Amino acid sequence: MRLTAFVAILAVASLAHADENADCSASYQKAQRERMEGQFRAARAELLACAKPSCPKFISSDCTGWLAEVEQQLPTIVLAAFDDSGKDLVGAELRVDGEIVPNDGVPHAFDPGTHTIELRAGSRRAEQSVTLRTGEKARRVELRLAPLPAAPEIVRRPVPASAFAFGGLALAFIATSGAMWGIGTSDASAYNTRCVAGPCSSAEHDSVWRELVVGDVALGLAITSAVIATVLVLTRKTIRQPALAIRF
Q1: How far apart are CA 135 and CA 75, in angstroms?
Q2: 157 CB-near residues (< 8 Å, 6+ apart)
Q3: Which residues pair with 179 in a beta bridge?
Q4: Which domain, by its residues, includes 30?
Q5: CA-CA to 104 of 20 to 30 Å: which in 9, 148, 231, 247?
Q6: DSSP state of 88
Q7: Which helix (H) or strand (E) holds 91?
Q8: Residue 58 burial (CB < 10 Å; 0-12/13-18/19+)?
Q9: CB of 60 closer than 8 Å to CB of 50
C-alpha cells in the first residue's frame, strides 16, 4: 500500500517536472524569437520564466545571459507631467500607447521604436510622440498642458449719456442761431429800408444788433457742444464682460 502511494507521488512529481520543463522550453524558444523581433519587454518576461533554477541547467544558463543582454538593450523613459504654468501635476494620468504608466518619476521600460505618450488631467489632454532607441536609458519626456483658452467675452463701447446731452444742446443752439439770424437779417433789412427813407432810431439799431449777436453766440455754443459730444464719443470707455455674464 505504501509502495503504491510512493510510486504515485513519484509519478505526479515526474509529470509536474515534465510540465515545468515544457514551460521552460517554450519560454526559451519564445524569448529568442521576441529578441530577434525587437520585442524586448516580452522577451524579458519569457527570460525571467526560463532563467529560474528549476529549469534545465542549459536553459537557465542561456536565459540568464540573454536576460542581462535584453536589460541592457531595453530603452527606458522617465515621464514628467506639468500644468500650463510649469507646476508638477500630481495625480495626472499618463499613458504610453494606451498603457497606463505611474506618474512616479521612475524609469519605465518600452521597446525601441515610436510611442505615443498622453497626459490626461480631467478633461484636458496633451500628447507627444517619441522614438526610443536600443539601449537608450532614462530618457526624460516632459508633457505640458496647453493654456486654457480665454473665456469668451463681449466688448462694448457704450456712448455716454453726456454725449447725447451735448449733441442735443448743439442741435438746440443751431436751431436758435438759425432763428435769430433769420429774425436779425429780416429786421436789419427793414431797418436799412427805413433808414434810407428817413431817420433811424438807435433803439432799432441796438435791437437788430442784439439779434445778430445772439445768433452768433448760439452758433458758437452749437459748435462747442458738437465738439464736446464728438470728444465724448471718441474717448468713451471700453467695457469687457464675460459672455456668460450677459443676460438678455
Answers
A1: 5
A2: 236, 237, 238, 239
A3: none
A4: 2-73
A5: 148
A6: B
A7: none
A8: exposed
A9: yes
Which of 110, 144, 178 corresponds to the end of one domain? 144
Q: Which residue has the higher pLDDT, 63 or 185?
A: 63
Query: 39 Cβ partners below 8 Å, 6+ apart?
Result: 111
**Residue 3 in grid coordinates:** 509502495
**Do 169 and 238 share a domain, yes or no?**
yes
Q: pTM above 0.70?
A: no
Look-up of cell digits 544558463: 61
- Contact indicator for 166, 225 with CB cutoff of 8 Å: yes
In a domain, 149, yes or no: no
CB 93 within 8 Å of CB 20: no
Task: Give the count of domains, the chain.
Answer: 3
Which one-letter amino acid corresponds to residue 231?
V
Contacts 24+ apart (CB under 8 A), 3-7: none
Contact 222, 173 (CB under 8 A): yes
CB atoms within 10 A of CB 231: 12
- Class of residue 233 by CB neighbours under 10 A (exposed 0-12, middle 13-18, buried 19+): middle
Q: How far apart are CA 30 and CA 51, in angstroms?
A: 13
Greatest CA separation for the chain: 168
Mean pLDDT across the chain, nearest whole number? 82
Give the mean pLDDT of 42-65.
93
Residues 176 and 118 in one domain: no
Give the separation between CA 49 and CA 57, rounded to whole angstroms: 13
In b/e form, how buried is each residue of 130-163, taking b as 16+ CB within 10 angstroms?
A: bebeeebeeeebebbbeeeeeeeeeeeeeeeeeb
Q: Using N-to-C axis directions, what is the helix angle for 40-50 and 2-36, rounded to 10°?
A: 160
